[in-house]
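Database export, one record per block. Field names are fixed; values are copied verbatim from the stored entry.
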Amino acid sequence: MAQVQENGDALAAPIVHAPREYQAYPGAKYILPTDDAERQRQHKTLKSMFGNRILFAPVELDENDKVLDVGTGPGLWVLDLAASVDSSTQMIGVDIETRLFPASPPKNIQFRVESVTNLPAEWSNTFSLVHQRLLVVALQVPQWPTALSEIYRVLRPNGWVQIAESTPWHDDIEYPAWPCLAKLAALYRAVARSRNLYVDCAYDMPKMLEAAGFIDVRSESRMQCMGKWAGENGAAMHSNHVGVLRGIKTPVLQAGGYGLVSSEAEFDALVEGLAKEWEEAPGCDKEFIVFWARKPSS
């Protein structure tokens, strides 16, 4: 018998499959897995897109500074930063899940469970730099102003925030050369809508930062080209985004396929078809944007 929502509409029965590991934090809406397959999927590819730069905010870190990495996951960004700055700079990586935390971090880095929507009260005016990347599939629409307000609070006066997000796939435009992508984009949007996730946050980031009180808002972007035709980085980006779409399989199937897929085999066939589409019909469809902004001195 079909499940029924509070409004009386019937829910599709879940499609049986072997799910991957996902966030267990109460109320978490993050739609991608938190298992080993996610550890290295993003960092190296995104870093290479910008000539191996990971720090865009104009800060010079020393022993008097503290850095906060929000949504740190396996800590790849903060570990990379720590290797290139003064080793006495104190850093904290926070996430709502401990599963990906590194086992033996350097002495100047600690990892702890915290949510960006409710950071510790004692952290007010503490950090010279706060970094956050790819929480597009984690934070719900009303949580973004709260998160940016919390980041603003914990920054020191004249401190910098650096936020990086990807623009989304669209389900309201045609992809004539990529029919598999068209259906997967619709599935991605359907999962996001069902969880009230702000998948268009990259488009609105400058005005959200300004609304939170930040000034000197800047950004730099790169197009994300998928496929070997775009060289080594294109091949890596291809693998990266196929991984994203493969990662939404569990929530899609648990929701019954949203009327777009009816089995795990059908979903897998879409992902495999997409991998071929990006090789046979080259193109660049998504931007990756790094934003940075300053908390005023007073």
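Remark 1: The first strand starts at residue 3 and ends at 4.
Remark 2: The radius of gyration is 20 Å.
End of record.
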